[in-house]
Amino acid sequence: MKYSYYPGCTLKTKAQQLEKFALDSAKVLGIELQEQNEWQCCGAVYPLATDEIATKLPAVRSLAAAHAKGEKLVTLCSACHHVLKRVNDDMKTNENVRKKVNNYLELPFFYSGESEVLNFLEVLRDEIGFDKLAEKVKNPLTGRKIGAYYGCLLLRPSTVMNFDDPENPSIIEDFIKALGGTPVKYPYRTECCGGYLAVDKKEIAQEMTANIIQSAAKYEVEELVTACPLCKYNLEENGRGVKKLSVTYFTELLAEALGIK
Question: What per-residue confidence (pLDDT) applies to 197?
């Protein structure tokens, strides 16, 4: 199985483990993630202004490049996945955006949102299958009580992201179960950590993060797993006044269970 792979900026700097263990695991699972040659930063934040075009162009370049190769576009970072998928939806459904973007980029073809954007978790669930993944496990995570932290970017808006049930998701819990661990659900697993407030309104981010950690601890979660570098930073650094929990990327758990970490 071959995919166009969009890494994003953070995976080349502060979140290298998220990428490294994904690429190592992909080889074991027979998945080829071919990094795109000329990808650019997606902007990290989806622009809400309806007439904003310029900040969507880098995402469209990657989307169109994947379409030209006839491949699905896979990413690992929650923020990148969010931006790519929402911009792609704009190209499908918003004639004004679609026309202006194509006029500006002068692509060799008219792009209308034909690419399919997948988070690597979706590849594991829908393309490999968690049952098949479980058969590849060499070091099961037996006895480990692991809490999934989804945050907000993977799930919302649900009609566009179409990733999982936005209020009661299960994909990461099913992933943990396939690796032999014990998934623990807790109330705040889909709440925002305040990631984009961590610089100018740090106290708010600290309070939001503390609520998440306290919620997980109350349900006897021993470690947290996430797909978002910003969420991981917040959970590790900004949980004001609460006992910290170990936070890992889902790809680290995957590599560990496959016996390659």
Answer: 84
Give the DSSP per-residue string, 83-129. HHHHHHHHHHH-HHHHHHHHHHH--SS---S---EEEHHHIIIIII-
Query: What are φ and ψ of residue 100, in 5° steps?
Result: -65, -40
Q: How far apart are CA 228 and CA 20, in angstroms?
A: 15
Architecture of the CATH domain 130-258: 3-Layer(aba) Sandwich (3.40)
The mean pLDDT of the chain is 95
User: Is 259 strand, coil or helix?
Assistant: coil
Averaged over 231-238, what is the pLDDT? 91
Residue pair 250/17 in contact (Cβ under 8 Å)? The answer is: no
Q: Which residues pair with 117 in a beta bridge?
A: 73
| H helix or E strand, kind and range, residue 3 | strand 2-6
User: How far, rounded to the nearest angstrom, does the alpha carbon of residue 184 sit from its chain's CA centroid?
Assistant: 20
Residue 242 confidence class, pLDDT cut points 50, 70, 90: confident
CA distance 151 to 196: 12
Give 148 or 196, the one with higher predicted confidence: 148
Q: Is 246 helix (H, G, I), strand (E, B) or coil?
A: strand
Domain ranges of the chain: 2-120, 130-258
The per-residue pLDDT for range 160-188, each reduced to its tens digit, is 999 999 999 999 999 999 999 999 999 99
Nearest to 67 by CA among 105, 31, 11: 105
User: 2-120 architecture in CATH?
Assistant: Up-down Bundle (1.20)
- Give the DSSP letter of residue 155: T
pLDDT tens digits, one per residue of 11-25:
999 999 999 999 999
DSSP 31-60: -EEEE-TT-----SS----TT--GGGHHHH
